[in-house]
Write a structure and sequence with these properties.
alpha+beta; 9 strands; NADH Oxidase; 8 helices; 246 residues; two-stranded antiparallel sheet
């Protein structure tokens, strides 16, 4: 077996019992990593909606039955309310305290390994650009804008943008989960990303949108787009979101 494949298999089947004998950063009494990214004060921030009077809810059975990967989208704008709804249901923080974050997605030991960024391509009331989702405040903070972004995003996604109204970028900050779970953290981070994208897929069905989850992307280009270092924070999962054809 190829050594690289073998190493990767070991990453997703760690021996949990070995963790009891590991001197993790938490056991060493080291400082816990920051639970949230703080937006740059110079960046524009936008409050998102927390109530959605124009969105007609569907049953869980309905959205599970209709969910399929969608790669072609109708060229209409997503409403600001719809964008707010997707972030509210997929990624929001429900509550937090000094050493635990509780979100709409399961996160290992409440360690909150992930952050969410979005590229807004066609959304009413907001300019096209890349934004950080400020998860503890349910806001967006503008990271980057410019006419060249559409092409740059498409290139970083290996030409899989396909006119989507929004692209979600889920990033990992491994130190948050390594602090408590050491070598077991990386499997748990990957699982957490899957939870987030499933939330996104199901909530998108409510607003008659489809999602294409993307693992095939140019790591360096995507991380550069988000202004992250690709070491202590890096993209782990992407997803395009767009309106279904009537």
């Amino acid at each position: 077996m190829d050594d690289r494949i073998k190493r990767n298999r070991e990453t997703i089947k760690p021996n949990w019992l070995d963790l009891y004998n590991v001197n993790s950063p938490k056991r060493q009494g080291l400082q816990r990593p920051d639970q949230f990214i703080k937006p740059n004060n110079q960046n524009q921030t936008f409050n998102l909606l927390k109530e959605f009077p124009n969105i007609k809810q569907k049953s869980l059975s309905e959205v599970i039955a209709s969910r399929r990967s969608l790669r072609q989208y109708e060229q209409v704008d997503l409403s600001f309310e719809e964008l707010s709804y997707l972030l509210w249901e997929s990624c929001r923080v429900v509550s937090f305290k000094e050493n635990a974050v509780f979100r709409t997605i399961p996160t290992a030991g409440a360690t909150n390994s992930m952050e969410t960024y979005v590229y807004l391509n066609q959304v009413n009331e907001l300019d096209s650009g890349i934004y950080l989702y400020v998860q503890d405040k349910h806001k967006l903070s503008l990271i980057k804008s410019g006419k060249e972004l559409n092409n740059l995003v498409n290139e970083s996604l290996l030409k899989q943008l396909r006119g989507a109204q929004v692209v979600f970028f889920f990033t990992a900050i491994p130190a948050r989960t390594e602090y408590k779970y050491d070598f077991c953290a990386h499997k748990m981070i990957a699982i957490e990303a899957g939870h987030a994208c499933q939330n996104l897929s199901l909530s998108s069905e409510v607003i008659d949108c489809g999602v294409c989850a993307i693992c095939a992307y140019d790591q360096k280009k995507v991380d550069s787009l988000l202004n992250i270092d690709s070491e202590e924070q890096f993209t782990i999962y992407c997803a395009t979101v767009g309106k279904k054809y009537n």
